[in-house]
Structures are given as C-alpha cells and as structure tokens.
Specification:
The chain has 15 helices and twelve strands. By secondary structure, it is α/β, with parallel strands linked by helices. It has two domains: about 170 residues, Rossmann fold; about 150 residues, N-(1-d-carboxylethyl)-l-norvaline Dehydrogenase, domain 2. Helix 3 runs parallel beside helix 4. The radius of gyration is 20 Å and the shape is globular. The relative contact order is 0.12.
Amino acid sequence: MMQGPKLKVVIAGAGSIGCYVGGMLAKGGADVHFFARRRIHDDISKNGLHLTDWTGGNFRVDVSQFNSSLSADVFNGADLILICVKSKDTHHMTHIIKDSGNDKAVIFSFQNGVGNSQKIKQILNTQTVLPVMVPFNVVYQSGGHFHCGTEGSLYCQQDPAALALQKLAKNAQLNFELKDNMTSILWGKLLLNLNNPINALSDLPLKQQLETTGFRRIYKKSLQEGLAVLKAANITPGKVAAVPIYLIPFVLSLPDFMFKRVAQKMLAMDPKARSSMWEDLQNNRPVEVDYINGEIVKLGKKFNISTSLNERLIELVKKAQDKGHGSPRLSATNIMHDN
C-alpha cells in the first residue's frame, strides 16, 4: 500500500521541551524542523540531539534526522506546528507564524498557563489551535543533551486534527492522550506548577524539596489558596497527577515517613530533576511566574480572596530574577518570612 508524503512538523521554540519532544518525534521517524535561536541552533546542528530520561532511556538523534533553521521560512509547508515558547513570547511567535503565510497548519500549544491557546486563536483565526498539557520536566545540559526528569502523558484537546500528531507520538514512544475538557486539565496542571517557584527559590532537586517538611508546608498553603480561588470562580481542576488535586494538600501535610510512603508516585522522578523556573533563574532568563502563580493572584483579587503566599512567591522569584545570580537558595523559613 502506497503511503503519502510525511507530514512536516515544525517546533516553534526549540527550548528544553521543544527539543525533547521534537527530538523524540524525529527519532520515531517524523519529518521534524526546529525554528531555533542561534545558541540552540548551533548546538544541535553540530552535536545532534542526545535525549535521556529518568527511567534510563538514552537516545541519539543524528543531525541527518532533523532540520534546524534560524529563518521563519521553515514554516512554509508545515502541516503541524508545535508552539513551545514561554508564555510571554506567545504573541511574538504567533505573529511570526502568521507573517510566514502558513494559514493551513494545525497549531498545538505545548505551553504552561491557561490562556495561550485563546491568544493564539485570536491571531490565527482561520486555523485549528489545540492546547497540549506537558507533564514532564526537561533540563538542557549542553552538547545537544536534553534530560527528562519526570514521567507523565501528554494530554491534548480531543479533535480529529489531533490524530496525526497522536500517531507520530505513538511511533516516538511518547504517551499522547486526547481529552474532552482541556480547560480543566490546564488548571489542574497550573495548580501542580504552583510548586515551581518554591523549587526555584530553594535550589534543591524536586524530590529532595518535596521530601522536606518546611517546603511542603509552603506548597500546601499555595495550593490551598489556588483551590479556594478556583472554587470561587466555579472552575473544577482536572486530574493530572496520581493523587486527585484536592487531596494533595492533605498528603503534603503528612509527616515525612508517611508522606514518602503515600506519595510514592508523586516522588517517582529523577533525583536530580528540577523545575523549569529553576532552570530559567540559573540561566538568567525571564521566569513564567506571572502565568502560573499570577493567575491565582488575579482570580483572588477578582473574588476578594487572599492569595498572600502566592503574591510573596512571585515577589521573591522576581527579586531573584532581577539580581541575575540564579537561585537565592532560600530556606523554607526565609520564603515564609523576611530575614
């Protein structure tokens, strides 16, 4: 049986997530093109891609198996475009895609936060735009090496246009599930991501940070504020973890020995895994805290509900960002209270 030409997949934003997902797709035989900044372009064009994960997965993707470009011409003829930039760059990247003249590609938003798909749709009003929830953390380790430190399935909005990417993901051994209510899923992921600034401020690996009582107390209070404002806004967060989100504050309050037993799946990760916000601080890049904790603060103001801890986490992370020295390595006490 004759097969048609391969679908052209463009990764719009070749950062940690973009290179890992795009690299896995290329390993699976997809026709992958990266639209990259100079630093990443030069690295992966020279070294290829080295993809590892916390389970021991270790893959090499040769430079002959993908294309990397600095030019927006790469969007010409693209069938599937995966937007993997930070939320603050959504507007800029979407306009680059629009200006390329490609008005046929299916767009997938592989981004944190809850509003990116709507922003993209407003600009590309003739195209299908589907949100994707990315559950795992990926850290760039230079030399084309991208390491995935946590597990989970990609969740995408149920739509016939998503089937092509689902098939490519299956070939790449990436779990890719279609969901009816992605708004709920994205809010669930946002609540989990409320831990990102805590991890970034602590300078500890995620597993060690979660196993520390003081940091769990901070995460618990941050989550409780988030759950309270979502309840006021009549938003039901979807299940995106082994434990239902409304039970996580209780699990976080358990003594260390009980927490380690009950939260085994929550702690199933590479011992060295870190949050993307930690990576941004270390590399002196703008953090996404306004698109995560900031969404909780915004709803809190709308419904007159206190979100004082999330406000403090935003303040501390931005202060660290402005100093440009990476993580401030704060203790749990320092995060909760000024010195």
